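Run: sequence + zinc ion -> complex structure.
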Amino acid sequence: MKEAEDIYKAAQAQLNAYVQAHEMRRSQVRNMVLEQICRLPQPFTAAQLEEVCKAERISTGTVYNVLHVLIEASLVRPYDRGIGQTVTEYELVTEVSRSHMQIICRKCGRRTFIYDKALQRLVMERPYSNFNIQNYTLVVYGECKICRRLAVKRK
Ligand SMILES: [Zn+2]
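>> structure
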């Protein structure tokens, strides 16, 4: 996926700057974990990251160490889903983000990421003159299932 590569390049540049500024040693495995994060749908859980890293023979301890460094470097941040969140989720923060749609509940602020291939094709393949699309974020507002249910109960 071309987009994931662009995101990884941007994230890696950000990580390298952090590593240099903090006089840390560069690490191949740190870049490998970062690459896996760039490929994961966002937000992701530590368990999801662990699973994809396991396939790359990266140990659980290393995954958590790297995740900690990435949070310190402001490349990854805990993701706040609002109500109904049971496990800690994380999201990648780079200048380039993966194209996605976010649906946000106006009442409780609950945010959900949606990766819709058909929508992506529609937006990315649309010819806009004098403009080369790199990625997009589509934000859709409405009312979530929980809030709607609560509203019905109140009536
Ligand atoms: Zn809601």
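>> summary
The helical segments are 2-21, 28-39, 46-55, 60-72, 117-124, 145-154. The chain has two domains: 2-92, 100-154.
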